[in-house]
Write the structure tokens for this entry.
Amino acid sequence: MLRNDEPAVLLQEVQEGLGLPHGFRLRRDDVHPRAVTPRVAELVLDISVPCSSCASPIGFPGLVCPSCGKVVPLPLREALEARLEASDEDFREAKAKIRSAATTLLVLALLHAGAGLLRFLVETSMGFQDAAEKAMAAANLIAYLGMGTVLFACYAWCARSPVRATAVGLGTWLTLQVAATIASPLSALPIGLSGFLVAFVRFAVLLLLVRGLVAALRAWSVMRRMAEKR
């Protein structure tokens, strides 16, 4: 939303971005999100959603209603971000990369849980020689399921706090890779076709998670700028 104390250069930028003739007085109702550039939209648009309790407008950061003090529920916060996503290209691109990172975390969670269960079933069908071997198989199953649970929690957490969720998910996955390399150094070497495929998948996962974390930081920066303008 434009303020009375905006510098004249910003007002000129808005007018040029909209293609308005000189002397035309700009009103907020005249602005459509698709008719402006991201920079102009940031200056002109007042992005908000009505509070479910008192109907007062709620803007960013969108955690608590400024009028009644009620905590904003997640669906309403998602609606607020959806409006910003529709009007800001940078935010829209960042959200797309965050979704890719979240999907990667979900796939990793399912793969770890499935691999743990499959390994345990195979070892059980082959039989155990002693109690120690059975205990080791159970410990491996718990480790795989625990890792899958952590990664799935990070996936679900992305909806509320994408920066923290992607950071924790990336750290968890890197810790697992380091532990696997220490336990079996040869497994980290791209030997043969299967080794190259594993190395490629690891690189792709790392790229998607790092890109998601950077995008989450950028989206948070956009929302912070919107909050400062209110």
User: Anything to note?
Assistant: Helices lie at 8-18, 38-44, 74-87, 89-126, 131-157, 162-183, 192-228. Residues 115 and 144 are 7 Å apart (CA to CA). The longest strand covers residues 49-50. The chain has three domains: 1-46, 48-80, 90-228.
